[in-house]
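Hey L., structure's done. Input below.
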Amino acid sequence: MTSINSLHRQRSRWGSSCNKNKNKNTDTSLRHRSIVVSPRSFFWRMRAVLALLTASSLLAYFKHIKDASRSLDAYYNNVKLSHLPPLSPPKVIDKSKNDTNVEITTFTNNNAVNLSGIYFPALDENGKPGYVHDATTLHTNPPAFDFKGVNCGPNDATMQMMTQRVYVDLAAHERVNKLGKTPRSKIFCHVYTTNKQRIRIQAIRETWGHRCDGFHAASTVTDRSIDSVSIPHEGKEEYGNMWQKVRAMWSYVYVHYFDSYDWFHIGGDDMYVLVENLRLYLESEDIVTASNGGEHPLLLGQQFYQDGYMNASYVTGGGGYTLNKAALKALVTSFPHCEPNLVSSTEDVLVTRCLRNEGVEAYCTADETGAERYNHIDPEMEFNYDPKKNPLLYYSYSSNNTNIGPERVVKNSVSFHLKSGGMDGQPKVENLMRRVHAILYGHCTNSTLGPPVPTKQWRDGKFLKNYWKRPQFECDLKAKPDEICNCSRVKYLQREVEVCKKVKKPKSFITNATSETATTETTSNNLFYRFLKYRRE
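Output:
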């Protein structure tokens, strides 16, 4: 009787029972087997070889694509983050020269951050270095608000935005003051300016500046009467060198005011800050938790995602941005090795990049609907703004805020950028600042405004109509859509570069209305031609 083990051995030799009869007369000895390859076998073997070669080629191809993708990401991170990408290699500062002829000395403060070549002692009224401004002067002795020259009317978009949507939460502010359980957050505010704009600084002092616990204006002349301080910096005093100016400003603030304040807010001389709202926001449970009691660095402000790239985000400086102590220390720590010699106007982009290099990402300050607290554009533009009809701002500096009109801003907003002041018949920045302040703080309550003034839907083509008349854009304006790529100034706009190179970008929040899965490339082409149409009106 055949044993079970012998059956297993037999199956192991001959294979399965289904193949036993088939292999019955087959000699399994390799020594005596003749190698005969049939045409069908040869065909399948060749197919296998071709498949291996094809797979190898595909792997090499995908590796090439991956390397190219990494190069593209590096390009966007290093070049295309700026508002106005340079058409020529960036300038490098000659450190042997600067406008003030102040000797740069090695400086290390108590917080052990080396600021050699970055920190410049401020100059007093006589040009002598070493001046330290008393930042509490404005807060303790605020000037009177000059309401006589303010024109509250008409009942336009600014008036409607400031009365129907935005408000200063004075009730909550006073309620927290009365409770007195914990000390209020101490805020230091500083603005960059020049002596030519001293009239704006006076308007800031009368309106919102004195509501900060500490304040100064980094100017070209030290004038204690308007709290302006001359802080030297590398390179020339010009808008195109704003990065070096801001580096010097932050270094000066870090050296002299780091221990005295909890938060530090910066912006231009055309920024209006609702300080009570800012203080309440910084003291909110959301921010206290996010900062872990101040130990975790926070960068607060409105974020733009340039060209729809979420990994190319930056905090715009239009409405200003806010740092806590930990973020300020991280920022000045990065200065020696983060673009130390670059000449650029895009200080907000570079500050965001330097903090990102230190592991600090911008914190989202929008509310649950996408409305913004820090507003890059002024109340009138926001009131009439529709992102679907404004491809220039929406696409070049796009954010997640797809709301329309007044709902684009949070009711207790923190700041506005009065960028349209003095343009297209608008009042000058200083007058617009006083008007916004008068409306918010009840000075215009008894004014007769009349019915709302009809306002047209604002478009970037209308707002920038004079801007596009500059000679350098002549080629762009006259060229046909299929000829636009031949213009030398075409690189000025990121969108045009994308269309010309036909770079397929990753999906973003920008989609066609008819398809949620539409690619960004298709949408960008549509927006691009719509933009050309608007720009030529």
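The CA atoms of residues 216 and 367 lie 30 Å apart. The mean pLDDT is 74.

-- N.
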